Amino acid sequence: MKKNTFTKIFKDEKIPYLELRYTNSNKHYKKHFHDTFSLGINEQGVSIYTNNDKSYTLDENMLSIVNPYAVHSCNACSEVLNIYYMLYLDISWCKEVQKSIDDKVNEFTNIPLDILEDKVFYDEYLTLCKFLFSDNHISDKEDILIDFFIKFFSLFLDKTEDANTNKEFDKIVFFLEKNYKENISIKELSKFFNLNPYYIIRLFKSKINLTPHAFLINLKINKAKELLQQGHSISDTALECGFFDQSHFHKNFVKIVATTPKEYKLNFVQ
């Protein structure tokens, strides 16, 4: 009986530095290399993963780490179809994320491990991959992607400390509070404040454990709650708070308030 196989690729021109492969296969690949930084997991199945002259068993709760130009292969151990995710990232983008953590970084820094066994990172990576394939807005996808890789690269880099972080953080917060209606991108914040965009993200994560994008969404939702309490319609509220559309508003409202805008409008406690 022929086995049903599939391959899905996520790629978006708005985040061109990323490609995500989701597939099931028991094909055997020859040793090869990529000019990207790659990170992968088996969602189902066990593989033999080789990287240069070392060999590993890639199993549950393990991430395979492939630095640029590392000669590697990853093949199923049996005829059972493995289900796996493999993420390929442009090293220029990775370098900027790394530099936000350690300002001594001037070129991409190879990760000193071939495999990371860590259930927390495995689960977060799996969540990230599923989120990238979801119908969520691309800005939300980029947000969770950056959040994950700041945490991942921080495992292997020295963190830069800066005495000015409180002032920088306060200035950016004030700016976002005044401009919450706008969909301000991290690139716009970077240009306005003349700071590395990923440094800004790490700054917010260190201060309030939210990315700037997540903080801005929270500001929008807080204002939306006020407007709904005042009797504004859901469509007008979504528009007034600068959401891309009602679907974007609905998803983010439920995530933060744990109820729909309609239910909140009808049942909020004053």
Summarize the helices and strands and which ones pair or pack.
Elements: E1 6-10, E2 18-25, E3 37-44, E4 47-51, E5 54-58, E6 62-66, E7 72-76, E8 82-89, H1 91-101, E9 115-117, H2 119-132, H3 138-154, H4 165-178, H5 186-193, H6 197-208, H7 212-229, H8 234-240, H9 246-257, H10 261-267
Antiparallel strand pairs: 1-2, 2-8, 3-6, 3-8, 4-5, 4-7, 6-9
Features:
270 residues, alpha+beta, Jelly Rolls, 10 helices, globular, AraC-bd, transcription, DNA-binding transcription factor activity, sequence-specific DNA binding
**CATH fold description of the domain at 6-154:** Jelly Rolls
Rg, alpha carbons: 21 Å
Shape: globular
Strand order of the largest sheet: 1-2-8-3-6-9
Please characterize this protein's 3D structure.
The chain is globular, with a radius of gyration of 21 Å. It starts with 5 loop residues before the first strand and ends with a helix. Strand 1 (6-10) and strand 2 (18-25) form a beta hairpin. The strands form 2 sheets. Strands 1-2-8-3-6-9 form a 6-stranded antiparallel sheet. It has a 3-stranded antiparallel sheet with strand order 5-4-7, with no helix packed on it. 44% of the residues lie in helices and 19% in strands. The mean pLDDT is 90. With 270 residues, it is α+β, with helices and mostly antiparallel strands. It is built from 10 helices and 9 strands. Helix 1 packs across helix 6 (197-208). It has a domain at 6-154: Sandwich (Jelly Rolls).
